[in-house]
Amino acid sequence: MIRWIVKIILFPISLLLSILTAFLTFILGIGTTILYFLMLMCIVAAIGSFMQKDVSLGIEALIIGFLVSPYGIPMVGATVIAFLKGINEAIKSI
C-alpha cells in the first residue's frame, strides 16, 4: 500500500525527468553537430598554422578542437543525461 502512495507521489518527478531527458538529448544532438563543424575548422586552422611554422598556435587549435570534439564538451552533456536517466529508472523501479 505504501509503495503505491510513493509511486503516485514520485510520478510527476519521473514525468519531468523523462521530458527533461528527451529535451536534453535533442539539444545535445544539435549541439554536437555544431561543435563537430567547429572542430573541423579548428583542425584545418591547426594544419594551416603548422604549415606557417607557428607551432604554438597550431597546438592551441588542436586543444580547442579536442575540447569541442565529441570526446570533449559533448561527452559531459552525455554523462549528465545518463545520470538523469539513471535517477529516472531508479524512481520507476520503486
From TrEMBL:
Q: Spell out where the chain crosses the membrane.
A: 9-28, 63-84
Q: Note the Pfam families from the entry.
A: DUF5699
Which controlled-vocabulary keywords does the entry list?
Membrane, Transmembrane, Transmembrane helix
Annotated protein name in UniProt? Major facilitator superfamily (MFS) profile domain-containing protein
Q: Which organism is it from?
A: Johnsonella ignava ATCC 51276
